[in-house]
Write a structure and sequence with these properties.
By secondary structure, the chain is α/β, with parallel strands linked by helices. The protein is built from 6 helices and 8 strands. Strands 3-2-1-4 form a 4-stranded parallel β-sheet, with helices on both faces. A two-stranded antiparallel ribbon has the order 5-8. Strands 6-7 form a two-stranded antiparallel ribbon. Helix 3 links the parallel strand 2 and strand 3.
Length: 180
């Protein structure tokens, strides 16, 4: 939900979902789109959100990386695998973004994946244009569905008409999902 931004309040809090071993991806982001003035000046907050288990092999490495960059949110989750880890990590990030300072002061909270490139100036313009709308669900949309085993990536597509024709889903109809 968008809130009016005041001077000193961030426009957006972006949670970049990342897996613990993906240091190269985080490094590439720090050296590219995190260099935009909107990020460097704090108008757009960027944090890498990594699901962790305290006994996991990468925990101490992530702590060292965070102490150097101050941009990692380690979230406790009992699932860090590829199928369910992103879901639990996203839910936890949205909880943090809604309740923890400074993220809760942002007009927008968002999540994206660590293989995305964000044109931060363009995103900032779009969000400022949408600022007065009470609810915003923003992104590149495609249609996904759930089956008995969970989210069906293979059944995802950009057209609901195609998804309906395929009839491959046995638990939910295709629904719009903001990708990445």
């Amino acid at each position: 939900m968008a809130r009016s931004t005041e001077i000193g309040q961030p426009l957006a809090a972006l949670g970049v979902l990342s897996a613990a071993p993906y240091i190269a991806r985080r490094t590439a982001i720090r050296g590219s789109w995190m260099q935009y003035p909107e990020v460097r000046q704090g108008d757009v907050l960027v944090r890498f959100v990594v699901g962790v288990q305290k006994s996991g092999p990468f925990f101490s490495q992530l702590q060292m990386e965070h102490s150097e960059h101050q941009d990692i949110e380690m979230v406790k989750t009992n699932r860090t695998n590829r199928r369910w880890g992103p879901f639990f990590t996203t839910v936890r990030w949205l909880q943090i973004a809604a309740t923890v300072h400074p993220y809760r002061n942002a007009a927008y909270a968002a999540k994206l994946d660590d293989d995305c490139f964000i044109n931060v100036p363009e995103l900032t313009v779009h969000l400022q244009l949408l600022r007065d709308r009470p609810m915003v669900y923003y992104g590149v949309f495609y249609y996904a569905q759930w089956d008995k085993s969970g989210y069906s990536v293979a059944a995802a597509g950009y057209s609901m008409r195609v998804k309906r024709r395929q009839g491959a889903c046995n638990c939910s109809k295709p629904y719009p999902f903001a990708a990445a």
